[in-house]
Amino acid sequence: MSAKARTRRSNFLIDVALFFICVALLLPLIMLIANAFKTPAEMLQWPPTLLPRNPTLDNFVTVFTETPLLRWMFNSFAFASLSMIAIVATSALAGYIVAKFPFRSINVIFILFLTTAIIPFEVYMIPLYFQVKALGFLNSITGLLIGYLVMSFGIFLIRQNVIASIPDELLEAARIDGAGEFWIFTHIVLPLLRGPLAALAVLAFFQAWTAFAWPIITLTRKTAFTIEVGLANFQSAYTVELSLLSAASAAVMVPSVLAFVLLRRNFVEGIAASGMKE
């Protein structure tokens, strides 16, 4: 067998393997969407059906009329948007300073930033809860934001991109022309970091959008729930309303999928750029 034939055969086998992996990854998503259109009786049938035999919109009608799903989505969107803005701002500032201001002990500070990433949030979640309670921020967006203002990975991502894409000569030339540090940061550094900042914005948004542990202990009023906490209410101590839960999950999935599709290019470019050599 020639080398060209072996290459074609190996490529074909790789394509087949990747196809089956994609099918396996997409199957739960397909089942979720299909279950949203099934009746409760069909949901309990065994063996389960892949596609609904009698599609119905009753589950969606029940979810939107009997639960404050839109309110939960708004709460999650507000929380995720504000957290995204805070993380992008703090990461841009900290990453730029760590990369371009080599003062004494800067490496120690940067290592301290990174070490916070290996500490699980659950370790300091309870002390943080008592602080939020003492401040009177329970059942509010402000209380949620206290746990999602800074991302250590975001600082690392911006630092790597600043080192790789912004030469010191450019900054020195701006300083010689009389530009201040804040002007340099806003008019030179930030425009050159549009891709990485967009990638970080996507990561920060979905981190807050999918947050569950922190919202479930800081939110007790039903109208203040985020979408993840709201979806958990479809499960009680003895039953799970699978058809309603599937309908609500399918509805909630639409805006997040659209956001990722629109920003996927910047996301991939920003993450790839973080792996550049210094």
From TrEMBL:
GO biological process: transmembrane transport
Family according to the record: Belongs to the binding-protein-dependent transport system permease family.
Primary location recorded for the protein, binned into one broad class: membrane
Pfam families assigned to the protein according to its UniProt record, in alphabetical order: BPD_transp_1
Keywords per UniProt: Cell membrane, Membrane, Transmembrane, Transmembrane helix, Transport
Membrane topology note: Multi-pass membrane protein
Protein source organism: Primorskyibacter flagellatus
CDD domains in UniProt: TM_PBP2 (cd06261)
Protein name: Carbohydrate ABC transporter membrane protein 2, CUT1 family
Domain annotation ABC transmembrane type-1: ranges: 73-263
Places the protein is found: Cell membrane
Gene Ontology cellular component annotations, sorted alphabetically: plasma membrane
InterPro entries: MetI-like (IPR000515), MetI-like_sf (IPR035906)
Transmembrane domains' residue ranges: 12-37, 77-99, 106-130, 136-158, 197-217, 237-263
